[in-house]
Amino acid sequence: MSSTERQLLTIIAEAVLEQRLIDLVKRLGAKGYSIGHVRGEGATGRAALDFAGPSVRLESVMTDEVVDRVFEALAADYFPHFAVVAWVVPVRVARPERF
Amino acid sequence: MSSTERQLLTIIAEAVLEQRLIDLVKRLGAKGYSIGHVRGEGATGRAALDFAGPSVRLESVMTDEVVDRVFEALAADYFPHFAVVAWVVPVRVARPERF
Amino acid sequence: MSSTERQLLTIIAEAVLEQRLIDLVKRLGAKGYSIGHVRGEGATGRAALDFAGPSVRLESVMTDEVVDRVFEALAADYFPHFAVVAWVVPVRVARPERF
Amino acid sequence: MIASIIVDNLLTAPVIAFVVAGLATLVRADIRLPEPLYAVLSSYLLLAIGIKGGRALGLSESAELWRPLIAALALGIITPLLAFALLRRVGRLDTINAAATAAHYGSVSAVTFTVALATLEASGQSVEGFLAGLLAVLEVVGIVVALALARDRGSSDGWTEALLEVIRGRSITLLLGGLVIGLAVGDERLAPTDPLFVSLFTGALTLFLVEMGVVAAERLRDARDAGWRIVVLGIVIPLANGAIGAAAGSLAGLSTGGTAVLATLAASASYIAAPAAVRIALPSASPGLYVTASLGITFPFNVILGIPIYLAMAQVLT
Amino acid sequence: MIASIIVDNLLTAPVIAFVVAGLATLVRADIRLPEPLYAVLSSYLLLAIGIKGGRALGLSESAELWRPLIAALALGIITPLLAFALLRRVGRLDTINAAATAAHYGSVSAVTFTVALATLEASGQSVEGFLAGLLAVLEVVGIVVALALARDRGSSDGWTEALLEVIRGRSITLLLGGLVIGLAVGDERLAPTDPLFVSLFTGALTLFLVEMGVVAAERLRDARDAGWRIVVLGIVIPLANGAIGAAAGSLAGLSTGGTAVLATLAASASYIAAPAAVRIALPSASPGLYVTASLGITFPFNVILGIPIYLAMAQVLT
Amino acid sequence: MIASIIVDNLLTAPVIAFVVAGLATLVRADIRLPEPLYAVLSSYLLLAIGIKGGRALGLSESAELWRPLIAALALGIITPLLAFALLRRVGRLDTINAAATAAHYGSVSAVTFTVALATLEASGQSVEGFLAGLLAVLEVVGIVVALALARDRGSSDGWTEALLEVIRGRSITLLLGGLVIGLAVGDERLAPTDPLFVSLFTGALTLFLVEMGVVAAERLRDARDAGWRIVVLGIVIPLANGAIGAAAGSLAGLSTGGTAVLATLAASASYIAAPAAVRIALPSASPGLYVTASLGITFPFNVILGIPIYLAMAQVLT
Ligand SMILES: Nc1ncnc2c1ncn2[C@@H]1O[C@H](COP(=O)(O)O)[C@@H](O)[C@H]1O
Ligand SMILES: Nc1ncnc2c1ncn2[C@@H]1O[C@H](COP(=O)(O)O)[C@@H](O)[C@H]1O
Ligand SMILES: Nc1ncnc2c1ncn2[C@@H]1O[C@H](COP(=O)(O)O)[C@@H](O)[C@H]1O
Ligand code: NA
Ligand code: NA
Ligand code: NA
Q: Which of D8, D225, E263, F71 could form a disulfide with F252 if both were Cys (CB 3.0 to 4.6 A apart)?
């Protein structure tokens, strides 16, 4: 395979944010995303959040520029008040034009 | 821990491919795999695919040779007609003989 | 974003271990974790394990020290008798104090 | 008299199921039902309530409806304001948290409503069918009014978004969808669906309250963090709102059963629609506070003691 | 006459539920039922239809069965060929896409079949019990014939794989499993299961059609991309196939009700078994085309208008 | 006589459903029900059995209960010991694996119990209501005794953990929760929940046995790896334990139906609570062995042939 690099961004967030995060990554340039569901604990404490169902686990493979933009937006609008964590890993992909 | 490297391959694909992808990675030498389910969007458009249920998210830790073989097979048989994306990350594992 | 590195540990294990693994990573210093469910195959064979439901997929972003401690504990108490695999990837995070 | 009504309410299958599951959870036994059942049963209950309401609506004169509708609107305005005032003064909450919590008390809990219906049915009281329609009205209005309080004080962004979330959300849509289905199909042609939507209703509610018992008990554990003022208000606010609701019901000319149900609606606190809306509109408010109050304190209080009290109020006032 | 049959069909609970949920979705309200319910209800419906059929089969003479079976086989050959011809000529689709879509019209929709049964029951018409067996036959044959068309033209690889997928897939297995259970247990000993498999049937169908309303409405939105020719054919093909089915039913000596149901089967388009098989056998065909046609156009057409039309056809022909 | 009882048992809907689903799976057809249904139905069955038991308990004299309770405790001690001896001697298993497997035979299968109830009901036999309570006792005691065997021989760590897992686990909690609900609410006030917990019971069991047929058939495939000794013991142990159970039942003064059910309980092998406990307490034991034996061999044997045999034993002994 070609060894083109892209960034895999994983976001875990409380359930009410699902649609908002999808809109966010698409608006900032991600060409695709996948969503699963998880349960967990972090700084916020479990009980206060899971009334709305399991947390969202969004993953999206994107370019470096897009990942930076998304992180900025997360830091500005979501980190302060919502239960959200995110991390980034470089991945190798085929068909780089698709990401 | 020992710092042996292996490759973590993640494949996301439309639901009808589930059994076929399992057979593929096993046939080409993967010693294990895990399957979860996600919903998402990409180049294909959501609506045309989810009639068969959520997409498959297959992950498998494998050797470099196996990952190359799987990628070739994906490119030959699945990328052209099916909704499939895949990416690879190097991971550290214990008990490398298990992968 | 700041480019602080942390380690993302992924553990896949048979269902009965769910609560035990959560307790383990918390006790050894992880500040958070997320749990999803998968089905798969590995060295143990599928049939002998899934009576208790789908396997656990735990992921937790942690410091290098914590990841080493967790791996040691896994090797001592879980690898010998239980169906468990684990791998580690370095990830970039924002707000490193949260992990 | 109240004692006997309380016993009558307590000994119904749904309420006992709630109590047993709650106690089991408090002693750390796992009586949780499988996850998908929660969502399935709550959708079923909403749709079934809606269908029942629409069916009854089809048999009512529209002239009967105006006064109860006005009563519901009035309650949707008064109850969150009263809750807000109490939460500010007695509860000592800041504006944001007081408004966030008031939204829950201004809105309603469909499950509490349903338990009231089951209790009244068990005691042979009849209830006006159109009350399910008022449930939908009250669910929205109370949230709007409370969020407006916070907005006036300049601290809500997601306001319209939050509102759309409530109005287009599943709980309203299933209820209204059921109403329309019930109304359009009509009493007679609905008969073949009765085994599902009528006969199974109380059993399904019983099953659902097993799950609610678990969830409420888990919340109750958090009550310590919320503080005793919240615990007290979690009982005082529903009693106050229930009294106002009973008064409104009797003024609107409802039957004793209908008045008891309207009082229950006024007294009940939302724990699905309101938290979701508030989380968006007032993200800085603390869910630990408002979810604990509505789900951990007020919900069990209403189910176990409140409903018989509101029924007694209704009997006095009608 | 047709007008009154249409109204009778429209006002049943399942059809109204479908319409209400579809309209709600078109105005972007979320009336979707929880995800697990979809799979659970569709398994339940298939098993219940099967059991009902097997039970009736146990009470039938096997001599009655030959002519309807031949009729079904004939329909399984004729209807996909007719659909293919129309899709090529009128629809201007290439061979692959025409064959892919024809597989859907050659196969059947168990839910459409079920709505027809409920409608006929509501109007007091009796129906031959063994029709559930014909449903299983038709489900497979039509797909095979259409895929053979594409294969002849050299463009299907996953052919046997696709076929096994259909034959061993859940929808056939649950239906046939139910048939065998119904046949083996027999009418009398099945009585204790009646509260689940008989009494709840119409209610469960109503609930299922809420979900189908959502899904079909989402598909309908895609109709614009598919083009007006597909929209027209999504109505013309079922009408043509329905007429052929009605003729076949009356030739096979079925009752009026049975003829109407066979016509409905012929007219209905698969949206579960066929898409899965076609996706494997003809991966280059466009799902946006065939799923939109069968689920977004033909399914709602049949449920709302088609079934009463096929019943009218049956009344004329028997 | 046994032949006719076997046929009577075989031809009930739940048993035929089990057989049909098992055969379908053996020929690789996919008749699996959607995943969430498995968990939902098993919770429902446990709760419904519990409620039924609690209701009957409320109508019993407590004096009647002592002797059956002692019989159950005795069975909880004797049956795992007998199983252990057979598995060591005849099965040639090491201590750990023998104890692990014995825990399954010492414990019970609520579904096997339920099939026995349905069979007896179909044949008009009445059964003491309090047996559901004995089910809860037997479920725990047998596991404890067998794990104690392994512990004595120095090889169990997770012992208390494993025990808490069983006692606080869902299957015990739902059963006991149901008992308390049934007892507290009482026969009369439970009536509104009958459509769910009584009428639907046999149908739900039938549906559940479809799923069990799939699961058991998958296990049966693994039987080859487990060896023929395990296969033979998977039939001999339940027959031996069943005979002891029948003797205990008649000594305890149970009715014929009650004796047959107690025998069935003694004969049945756990495949939910025991595997989970054993996996924790004896992680080095092989699940491929004990799950195959209890789920792949003993469960189908009991459901198809065992229950009528235990009924015949009960008829001889009472
Ligand atoms: N260190 C972590 N590793 C993995 N997931 C985490 C971690 N911290 C938090 N999470 C997930 O993110 C959610 C919200 O985190 P928080 O905002 O810290 O409460 C939690 O419920 C977890 O599911
Ligand atoms: N950039 C991406 N990141 C993560 N998941 C993706 C991405 N692109 C596509 N996917 C997933 O892969 C599926 C098929 O993609 P596609 O073939 O592009 O339609 C989508 O439904 C998504 O779930
Ligand atoms: N190479 C692998 N890649 C991904 N997941 C694996 C791999 N091997 C095992 N697993 C998962 O870990 C579980 C237990 O593995 P094992 O202990 O090897 O049976 C399996 O059921 C899989 O879900
Ligand atoms: Na209220
Ligand atoms: Na057709
Ligand atoms: Na036993």
A: F71
- CA-nearest residue to D174 within chain E is E31
Which of B1, F142, C40, F37 is closest to E174 using CA atoms?
F37
Q: What is the 3-state secondary structure (H, E, C) of chain D?
A: CHHHHHHHHHCCHHHHHHHHHHHHHHCCCCCCCCHHHHHHHHHHHHHHHHHHHHHHHHHCCHHHHHHHHHHHHHHHHHHHHHHHHHHHHCCCCCHHHHHHHHHHHHCCCHHHHHHHHHHHHHCCCCCCCCHHHHHHHHHHHHHHHHHHHHHHCCCCCCHHHHHHHHHCCHHHHHHHHHHHHHHHHHHHHCHHHHHHHHHCHHHHHHHHHHHHHHHHHHHHHCHHHHCHHHHHHHHHHHHHHHHHHHHHHHHCCCCHHHHHHHHHHHHCCCCCHHHHHHHHHCCCCCHHHHHHHHHHHHHHHHHHHHHHHHHHHHHHHC
Determine the residue among D185, D199, D200 to mutate to test chain E binding: the one whose Cβ has the most chain E Cβ atoms within 10 Å. Answer: D185
Residue pair D125/D257 in contact by the 8 Å Cβ criterion = yes
Amino acid identity, residue E207?
L
Closest ligand to C-alpha of residue E241 is 5
Closest by CA to D17, choosing from F178, F132, F42, is F178
Number of domains in chain B: 1
Q: Which structural domain, as residue segments, surrounds residue C19?
A: 8-40+54-87
**Mean pLDDT score, F19-33:** 94
- Mean per-residue pLDDT over chain E, rounded: 91
CATH number of the structural domain spanning residue B28 = 3.30.70.120
Closest atom of ligand 1 to A12 CA is 12
Residue B49 maps to a domain: no
Tell me if A49 is assigned to some domain: no
Q: Are E266 and E248 in contact (CB under 8 A)?
A: yes
- Which one of the ligands is nearest to E310 CA? 5
Which residue shows structure tokens 């009639």?
A: B51
- What pairs with residue A38 in β-bridges? A55
CB contact under 8 A, B43 and A35: no
Q: Which has more pLDDT, A97 or C59?
A: C59
User: Which residues is B34 bridged to in the sheet?
Assistant: B59, C40
* Structure tokens belonging to residue A74: 């997360």
Residues E108, E270 contacting (CB under 8 angstroms): yes
Whose C-alpha lies nearest to ligand 3, atom 8? B32
Is B81 inside a domain boundary? yes
Task: Kindly report, residue by residue over D236-266, the tens digit of the pLDDT.
Answer: 999 999 999 999 999 999 999 999 999 999 9
- The CA angle F304-F305-F311, to the nearest 5 degrees, is 115
Q: Nearest by CB to E17, from D43, D181, D194: name it.
A: D181
ipTM: 0.93
User: Which whole-number Å values give the CA distances from E300 to E28, E209, F187, in the listed order?
Assistant: 18, 10, 47
Backbone dihedral region for residue B95 (phi beyond 0: left; psi -120 to 50: alpha; all else: beta): left
Residues 5-24 of B with CB under 8 A from E: 14, 16
Band of the pLDDT at D122, cuts 50, 70, 90? confident
Cα–Cα dist E129/E298, whole Å: 25
Contact across the interface for F207 and E47, Cβ inside 8 Å? yes
For C36-95, the pLDDT digits (tens) are: 999 999 988 765 567 778 999 999 999 999 999 999 999 999 999 899 999 999 999 988
E203·D195 Cβ contact <8 A: yes
Q: CA–CA separation, D224 vs D228, rounded Å? A: 7
> What b/e readout covers D98-108, taking b as 16+ CB neighbours within 10 angstroms?
bbbbbbbbbbb
Beta bridge partners of B62: B7
Residue F43 pLDDT exceeds 70: yes
Q: Is residue B38 within 8 Å of residue A22, measured between CB atoms?
A: no
Which residues lie across from F128 on neighbouring strands?
Answer: none
CA separation for the pair C33, D107 (Å, rounded): 34
